Amino acid sequence: MDVAIQDCLLETQFIGGKNVHTFEQNLAKHINIRHCISCGNGTDALQIALMSLNLPKGSKIIVPAFTYIAPVEVIKFLGFELVFADVDINTFNLTVENIKAVFTSDVKAIIAVHLFGQLCEIDKIYAFTQQNNIHLIEDNAQALGAEKNISRNSIITTSFYPTKNLGAFGDGGAVFCNDDELAKQIRKIANHGQTEKYIHDIVGINSRLDAIQAAVLQVKLPHLESYNQQRKNNADFYFNQLKEVAEIELPAVTQPHIYHLYTIKVKNNFRDKLRAFLTKKKIDTIVNYPMPAHYQKAFLQPDLHLPNAEYLCQGALSIPVYPEITEEQLLYICDSIKEFFTTNE
Ligand SMILES: Cc1ncc(COP(=O)(O)O)c(C=O)c1O
Question: The whole model's pTM is what?
Answer without folding.
Answer: 0.97
